[in-house]
Each structure stands twice: as C-alpha cells, then as structure tokens.
Specification:
This protein is mostly helical. It folds into two domains: 1-51, no CATH class; 55-89. The chain is 38% helix and 0% strand. The protein has helices at residues 12-19, 29-38, 67-82. The longest helix has 16 residues, at 67-82. The radius of gyration is 16 Å and the shape is elongated. Residues 1-7 have low confidence and may be disordered.
C-alpha cells in the first residue's frame, strides 16, 4: 500500500490525539472538516498536505466478493470520479 507525505499514512488514533491536544496530525480533510469548522482543530501547516490522489479498498482475494461489498466499491469509485479523480478498480 502506498503511503502519504514522507511515508506517513494517516491513522484514526492520530486524529483522536490531535483532538485531545496531544499532537499535530496529518488527517484527511474529509475526516477533519467538521472539526476544523467547529474550531476543535486548527490547520497549522497550510503549505503541507497529504496525498489526495489515492484510496484503496482492501478485501480478501481468496473469497467471492459479496454483492454488498461490490456495490459499495462501485459507489465509492463513482464518487471519486465526481471529485475529479481518476479511479482504477
């Protein structure tokens, strides 16, 4: 799996730690948006940003993909396309 800026992949615990005031964190905008709007988080390094050109759907390759999972992946791929990114399933 590819990683973000300087080999750093965002993690939910980093977001929680930033909300607690323990650290700064690289958090995807779609996750941090409400916290930024409410003032719970503040962007401190505006010249830095994570990679916005990849997303991965991870599932076991040794099983048949369920209709629900396939539908979800198709929905996400369509949504990513709407944002102007190229999706390659």
């Amino acid at each position: 799996m590819e990683e973000g800026v300087d080999g750093v992949a965002p993690k939910p615990r980093d977001h929680r730690a930033a909300l607690s005031g323990l650290t700064i964190a690289l958090v995807p905008a779609m996750i941090a948006q409400l916290d930024l709007q409410s003032g719970q988080l503040v962007r401190v390094l505006p010249e830095w940003s994570g990679r916005a050109d990849w997303m991965a759907a991870v599932y076991p390759s040794n099983r048949h993909l369920s209709v629900k999972v396939r539908s979800f992946i198709d929905h996400v791929v369509a949504g990513v396309g709407d944002l102007g990114f190229e999706a390659t399933p």
